[in-house]
Design a protein that fits this description.
The chain is an alpha/beta fold. The protein has helices spanning 4-13, 26-38, 58-68, 90-107, 119-127, 142-150, 167-175, 205-216, 220-235, and strands spanning 19-22, 42-46, 73-82, 111-116, 133-135, 153-157, 181-183. Helix content is 44%, strand content 15%. A 7-stranded parallel sheet has the order 1-2-3-4-5-6-7, sandwiched between helices. It is globular. Bound molecules: zinc ion (ZN).
Length: 244
């Protein structure tokens, strides 16, 4: 957020063609929407992260609902459940996620889901919800992924996919249908190899694409074309021409 224009420029130089910038709390919403409205290859998502769920009262959620109608807001989130940090009580997290799911369905927009050590509740909530969207920075196994894919969800991999310790996650990514996979930054966290320890940024997403290419036995161009098509399908947008 602090230097988005420069980060976007570096990512474009690496061939990254489209971006969704999710807000995770009310304070981020104006910046996310502003970045999207100033750039024809950027879109925004608005929501409240489970860490902040305890502060998501009626007035706060009304602000999310208002922002969801702004130009270039194509998704609801980041929202979800996080029982690892448990910065908000479990019941509060569930109630706030429920509101986000209802909003996403009412507006027919995809939902961007955060899930950490909360998979059982998350699967229960999503499977019967009728919502569609993406599981961001996915770290579960292929069985969980397939359950959600069958209900219309996409699976997004962050820099974790490149970590030396992530053999199980790579096995999952290898097994998934290519037309349901996205790649993401999760800045400033989870910078991929060989940038671990630095602040993450969108230019580095190419390293995740390279990892997918080797897992799938296809070219980097094929991964780029596939994840670009998946991005357009999920968020229902058309990227500006790469020739411009
Ligand atoms: Zn997250």
């Amino acid at each position: 957020m602090s230097d988005a224009d420069a980060a976007l420029a570096r990512a474009r130089e690496q061939g990254v063609r489209g971006f969704v910038v999710p807000a995770t709390k009310l304070d981020d919403i104006a910046s996310s929407v502003d970045i999207a409205q100033r750039n024809d290859d950027v879109w925004a998502a608005v929501g409240v992260h489970p860490h902040e769920a305890k502060d998501c009262d009626d007035a706060a959620f009304a602000e999310v609902e208002r922002a969801a109608g702004e130009a270039r807001v194509v998704a609801i989130g980041e929202c979800g459940l996080d029982y690892h940090y448990m910065h908000s009580p479990r019941e509060t997290q569930i109630a706030v996620l429920e509101r986000h799911i209802h909003l996403a369905k009412r507006l027919d927009k995809p939902i961007i889901i955060h899930n950490r050590q909360s998979t059982s509740d998350m699967v229960d909530m999503l499977l019967g919800s009728g919502a569609r969207g993406v599981l961001h920075s996915f770290t579960e196994d292929a069985n969980v992924a397939r359950l959600l894919i069958e209900r219309g969800f996409y699976i997004s991999f962050s820099g974790i996919l490149t970590f030396r310790s992530a053999d199980a996650l790579r096995a999952c990514a290898k097994a998934l249908p290519h037309d349901r996979v996205l790649i993401e930054t999760d800045t400033p966290y989870l910078a991929p190899v060989p940038f671990r320890g630095r602040d993450n940024e969108p230019a580095y997403v190419v390293k995740i694409a390279e990892t997918l290419a080797s897992l799938w036995g296809v070219s980097l161009d094929d991964v780029a074309a596939q994840t670009t098509a998946n991005f357009e399908a999920l968020f229902r947008v058309t990227l500006p021409s790469s020739l411009s």
